[in-house]
Amino acid sequence: MSDRYAVVGNPVAHSLSPSIHAHFARITGHDLRYERLLAPLDGFVETVERFRAEGGRGVNVTVPFKHEAFAWAVRLGARAAQARAVNTLRFDVDPESGRAVPFGENTDGVGLVRDIEARIGLPLKGASALLVGAGGAAFGVVGPLLDAGVSRLCVANRTASRANALAAAFAQRAGVVPQAIAIDALRPGYDVIVDATSSGLVGEGPQLADEVLGAAQLAYEMSYAPLPGVFLRQASRAGCARVSDGLGMLVEQAAESFFVWRGVRPPTDTVYGAVRAELDARATPHE
Ligand code: NDP
Description:
The chain is about 40% helix and about 15% strand. It contains eleven helices and twelve strands. Strand 8, helix 7 and strand 9 form a beta-alpha-beta unit. The strands form two sheets. A six-stranded mixed β-sheet has the order 2-1-3-5-6-4, with helices on both faces. It has a six-stranded parallel β-sheet with strand order 9-8-7-10-11-12, sandwiched between helices. The N and C termini lie far apart (about 40 Å). The protein is of the alpha/beta class. The relative contact order is 0.14. It binds NADPH dihydro-nicotinamide-adenine-dinucleotide phosphate (NDP).
């Protein structure tokens, strides 16, 4: 029987993860099935435990459950421990006691950094970066952005206290640490601006000034949709040199999750092309 995996979220219907993992399984010759699980907003743990009881081997965790997944995991990878957010759970069992010891890791940040540096071709070393948003995804990418050598990392969020909490969580790191900043205090001067909010999922964007966006070399929206969202359209209009949605990040973080589960890191180039075509097709009106 195929090994079962899933993505758990709310909403989750838009997720392309099942398609990506089907490509990875084919390329690597692994026998697995990957599904979508819509969890009630107050039912993340029940949903995951049911899937595990039914024989599931692991899950990806998406909006808004990454902090709950962090709390539920018994063992953590270094990136998840640093991020205090988990996007990949592997349902390990202790071989001696038979006890469930779910392992949590965070692959979002690795995915973002690989996409920006390897696919888009923008080196992050020495770049000045602005992260908008302070949810699970934002927590996940701070460590890897700092590890990539950004010279400055500011964090702005609609609810300022959450940006402050994010900055405080990384304040003890050596070297560059994130600084919280109010959205209306932002001034031009960022090379890379990453929209890590979920505003795109509801057809909105974070409220950034045109002058801030226009001065950037790259505006990157973690959400992805068949057509560019409000944030990317505003950045293009404002004169930002390059814009990208988060599809490449999605493929890269999925490859890293596959590695956590299966011990093999699948190649991503052809899969990115195939999934981009699949997303584009969603924008094409059907008869
Ligand atoms: P969370 O629910 O944990 O956090 C949501 C964040 O978005 C908060 O900072 C929230 O601000 C902000 N926000 C929500 N609505 C608005 C709005 N209308 N205007 C401004 N800010 C808003 O979600 P996640 O962090 O888990 O995910 C964020 C996004 O990133 C999602 O769209 C997700 O799909 C995407 N993502 C993509 C990945 C990829 O691989 N491409 C990987 C991970 C995430 P506040 O605190 O004020 O509520």
